Amino acid sequence: MTRILFGRRLTVVGVVAMSAGLVAAMVAPPDRVQGDVQRLMYIHVPAAWLAYLSFAVTLGSSVGWLWRRTARYDRVAAASAEVGVFFTGLAIVLGSIWGKPTWGVWWTWDPRVVTTAVMFFVYLGYLALRRATVDSVARARRSAVFGVVAFVQVPIVHMSVVWWRALHQPPTVLKPGDPSIDHVMLATLLLNVLAFTLLYLLLLRARMRLAVVEEELERTSLGEGQELAGNAVLAPRLERS
Amino acid sequence: MKRYRLLAFSGVGVVAILAGVLLFGNLNENLVYYLTPQEALAQRVEFPDGRRFQLGGFVEKDTVVRTQDGLRFAVASGVEPGSPSITVEHHGAPAQLFQAGIGVVLEGSWQGDEFVSDTMKVKHDENYQPPDTEGGAQ
């Protein structure tokens, strides 16, 4: 398991899955009403679902940190939130591009669109909070609490189209009952979800490796007994004085 | 530790209140994205001529007529015949997917018995089917 996760194989499998997903998205039948524009679904929906998953992982590892106080949980929570913000942004941008030809507008104050934007900013706030706290234990504690509370956004985003009247259509797959989608299209969508999940793991792994290096750097550069940077440089002086 | 427990409790409390308000609070009145023709007709007095709101419904079949600078058609609350409908005078180009039977959200105001709109959004449903299949929407 760890060898697959931490070896180079993940990259290879990820690239293969993404290529297969792209090909499948191109050869899948077009939609009856929307035509080829509907193909945007194969990246818009996985991006949105992976945003949910990312924030769920942040929730889980935040709880894990509060319970066990292991630095590793904090690293996973931070990395996953960062990747989640990326996927949320991607879903919003792709949704906007999809909205113009189908709805007729780039943006509208629709409940799904607005709650997704709020989720984006809430997790940007999470990342900002991490930057604003210097002490690593205080940072882990504060962001763990934030990571737990912020997750309330995810069910709100998902249920927004059910709870309120919206322009965005209600869920096709993530709902009770049979998915209201052609089965070839559904298979294509699920393949792309798998590809995006692998992309998520790749990004998470890269971000966690970076976090380890960053912590190392922090430890060595802020270590005690070291000279402050710039100490050797003399302040400029007027020559005649 | 005590401080932390307080923080956790207040956090859980805030989440519970938020969830309760969202689930049971009557936020719907303030969050209505559009009115259906039925509601728009029932609330006619609250929306005098010129007061803008969004009207959403389905484009009735065999009612779409081109006009000089737009379209005239009827918007109904449901797809079944006989559901309450309003005649719409739309100024401007229709949205790309505009067709009889599709959902639309129009922005505009009452003008007598007609709804005059200048912005149209098409609302597509959650069913995806290839072109050669019939009746994908159950």
| CATH fold naming of the largest domain in chain B | OB fold (Dihydrolipoamide Acetyltransferase, E2P)
CATH architecture of chain A: Up-down Bundle
The string of secondary-structure elements of chain B, in order, is: HHEEEEEE
Largest interface: A-B, 37 and 36 residues
Organism (chain B): Prauserella flavalba
GO molecular function, one term (chain B): metal ion binding
Protein name (chain B): Cytochrome C biogenesis protein
Subcellular location (chain B): Membrane
Can you tag this structure with a few keywords?
heterodimer; A: 241 residues; mainly alpha; Four Helix Bundle (Hemerythrin (Met), subunit A); 8 helices; B: 138 residues; alpha+beta; OB fold (Dihydrolipoamide Acetyltransferase, E2P); 5-stranded mixed barrel; 6 strands; 21% helix; 31% strand; CcmE-like_sf (chain B); iron (chain B); CcmE (chain B); Cytochrome C biogenesis protein (chain B); membrane (chain B)
What does this structure look like?
Chain B: Its main location: membrane. The complex is a heterodimer of chains A (241) and B (138). Chain A is mainly alpha-helical and 241 residues long. Chain A has one domain: Four Helix Bundle (Hemerythrin (Met), subunit A), CATH 1.20.120. Chain A contains eight helices and no strands. Chain A has helices at residues 2-6, 9-27, 41-68, 71-102, 111-132, 136-150, 153-163, 183-221. In chain A, helix 3 (41-68) runs antiparallel to helix 4, helix 3 crosses helix 8 and helix 4 (71-102) crosses helix 6. Chain A is elongated, with a radius of gyration of 22 Å. In chain B, strands 1-3-4-6-5 form a five-stranded mixed barrel. Chain B has 138 residues and is α+β, with helices and mostly antiparallel strands. Chain B folds into two domains: 1-31; 33-123, OB fold (Dihydrolipoamide Acetyltransferase, E2P), CATH 2.40.50.
